[in-house]
Every structure is written in C-alpha cells, then in structure tokens.
C-alpha cells in the first residue's frame, strides 16, 4: 500500500506529460496543461498533496519519503521557472546516490544497517546477511543512479520519461525479487489460527 501511495505523483506526472498540450480555464485563469513542464507542475503539486496528507494522518514521514519530497521540490521548481528539463533530469540520479550514501553511513552509525531498519520487522535474518544485503543495495542505488543519468541525457524525452516512471519500478521489482531466495527461510510467518477465528476476522 505504501509503495502505491508513493507512486501516485509519478503516475500523475506521466498522465499529464502524455496529454496533448491545451489551455484550460479555471476561475477565469487560463493555464496550459500537457507536456513536460506542465507535468513537472503536477508532479510538484501531487507530491506535496500526497506526502502532506500522509504527514497529517501518520504524524510522520520516513527519511526516504522526506528525501523524495525535498528532491521533487528542489528539482521541479527550477524546471518550471526556467523551462529547462536539465534540473529534472538530475533528480533521479542524485536521489539514488543519496539513498546509497544513507546505506553506506548506516554501516558506521547506529546498530543496524539501513536495509535491516526497512525489513527487519518482517525478516528475522542474521547480522551477516543484513550487512551483505546492505552492500548489495549500495551498489544497486549507485548503478541505478548512473543508469538514470545516462538515460536522461542520451535518449529521447519520451524514452527518458517512460524509464523514469516504469523502468525504475520494474528494475527495482526484479532486484527485490532476486533477493527473495536469500530471505525466504528467515521470513516470519505467523502461526495459522483456527478457521473460525480467521472467518470472524474477515467479516
């Protein structure tokens, strides 16, 4: 559920980008909708709305959500003001490298590596495995940042947007799936409750 909510602003971004550019009138004010700069405006607005709502309901955002929100504000704002996509193209690489830095720092500060903080509630794995996975994630974020940078500055706008919205999601899904054999035997499964109890809870 959390991953879907985090993904909403990107879906809004892609939908607006894919629209034919047009003028709409709201309360007597005309504004263009469609295309990359309009999509950046909607990405900024949707992110503030989504993460602002999460903060109001949860009274907190995790550090990765804060980083994502701040990055969207910092990179979308100059993109919109200066009508230059270069700013937006740097967002994904820098955010991924910041994530890599957090995973690196977690090896030296605190009692748990970052990946254990993220998944430790569901997986009771030994410390050696958490440190191994943490290192794997460091390399993943570093490489993904470099891939995003190459895609943004070497491919067409359409391919860049498609990779930004769908490519990163697919790569991360495959990457996480590839770690399941390492984690499978450590995943905590609650004991099955009597059928009657399960039926009562499902009502």
Shape: elongated
Kindly state the mean pLDDT as a whole number?
Answer: 88
SS element count, helices: 9
Rg estimate, integer Å: 20 Å
Please estimate the helix content: over 70%
Distance between the termini: 21 Å
Task: Please identify the structural class as seen in this structure.
Answer: mainly alpha
How many structural domains are formed by the residues?
2
Low-confidence stretches: 190-203
> Major sheet: order of its strands?
1-2
Order of helices and strands: HEEHHHHHHHH
The count of DSSP E runs of length 2 or more, i.e. the number of strands, is 2
Strand % is under 5%
Largest sheet report:
2 strands, antiparallel
Describe the protein in words.
The chain is mainly alpha-helical. It has two domains: 1-82, no CATH class; 90-188. Helix content is 73%, strand content 5%. It has nine helices and two strands. It has a two-stranded antiparallel sheet with strand order 1-2. The two termini are 21 Å apart.
Describe the structure using short key phrases:
mainly alpha, disordered C terminus, 203 residues, 2 strands
In short:
The chain is mainly alpha-helical and 203 residues long. 73% of the residues lie in helices and 5% in strands.
Outline the secondary-structure elements:
Elements: H1 2-18, E1 22-26, E2 29-33, H2 36-58, H3 63-82, H4 86-89, H5 91-105, H6 114-119, H7 127-154, H8 157-183, H9 195-202
Antiparallel strand pairs: 1-2
Helix pairs in contact: 1-2, 2-3, 3-5, 5-7, 7-8
